[in-house]
Write a structure and sequence with these properties.
Layout lengths: L1 E6 L20 E4 L5 H10 L4 E3 L7 H4 L6 E2 L4 E4 L2 E6 L2 E2 L8 E2 L1 H18 L4 E4 L18 H10 L3 E4 L13 E4 L2 E5 L2 E6 L1
Parallel strand pairs: 1-2, 2-3, 3-4, 6-9, 7-8, 9-10, 10-12
Antiparallel strand pairs: 1-13, 5-6, 11-12
Helix pairs in contact: 3-4
Amino acid sequence: MRILTVADEESKLYYDFYRPGRLDGIDLIIACGDLSKSYLEFLVTMAHCPLVYVRGNHDDKLIDTPPEGCECIEDTLYTYKGVRIIGLGGSYKYRKTGSNMYTEKQMTRRIRRLRWKLKRAGGVDIVVTHAPIRGVNDFDSLSHRGFECFRELVERYSPKLFVHGHIHMSYGVNIPQLSDFNGTTVVNAYDHCVVDI
């Protein structure tokens, strides 16, 4: 299965400079937050596949007006062609206002609420988040800190992919788009990245 992952900034390749057929061969689009509603609707309209998404820390508006034709997978287990996917959007809580920010304890609770579904499904293949794993592609500042509970989630279920956004490649020169954590491929979906599973 070929997956287009996107996050944080509308990819010029798939938006401004889009050409018909550019999304041919893509089986699924995963959006990891902080993208405009119009961009997500454009992608799902041009593609011949589903688009699933989680919300980023700047996506409060998508709660009341979600993008049409797209599937929000927040706090759920979504299965597509046998691939099991869970969604846990939002970032580490770094200010008092904002619906899509969580403390470590709150995110841990969200994961705990998915355990029965994960047990029934026999695990998970792809974890979709906005924030990164603590210690993998994150920073020490509260606004760009990853979650420790994501480390535990990956260690427990060994998904094939952990796909996140939030960490822009422009933040530094040594930010990888693909990395490995305990045998799980970690994808920083900033702008776009195509992966096969």
